[in-house]
Design goal:
By secondary structure, this protein is α+β, with helices and mostly antiparallel strands. It is built from 4 helices and 5 strands, in the order αααβββββα. A 5-stranded antiparallel beta sheet has the order 1-2-5-4-3, with helices on one face.
């Protein structure tokens, strides 16, 4: 089902370029490569105006990721960027306190499945 979702790089190319560069700078080469192929599964279900976070894999809301999870904070020039990674797979891109992200494919993010 996730294969039907758009690639984040097609919707938010600037974000993926930034993620890739920041991950390379942190020595996270495999995550930098995988960031290129993550899919936009949905947007964060919170209603906070400062949040533009993206779900890149299905996971029950409010449930811990469990064993194999790690948080990867990135030193962004603007706001906060953090990744939730489970067994080497990017599950969630936390995007906080940043200017509105520019979409390359208008409306695509709104069409993606959101948390129930």
């Amino acid at each position: 089902m996730e294969q039907d979702q758009p690639l984040v790089r097609d919707v938010y190319p600037d974000l993926v370029a930034e993620l890739t560069a920041l991950l390379e700078a942190e020595g996270e080469h495999w995550l930098a490569i995988s960031a290129w192929d993550v899919r936009l599964v949905g947007t964060c279900a919170c209603t906070d105006g400062f949040c533009q976070s993206i779900r890149t894999a299905d996971h029950p809301q409010g449930k811990p990721y469990g064993r194999g999870h790690r948080c990867v904070p990135l030193l962004s020039a603007e706001g906060m960027l953090n990744l939730d990674v489970l067994d080497g797979r990017i599950m969630f891109i936390e995007v906080l306190d940043r200017a509105p992200m520019r979409r390359s494919m208008p409306g695509t993010a709104n069409d993606a499945k959101t948390d129930e």
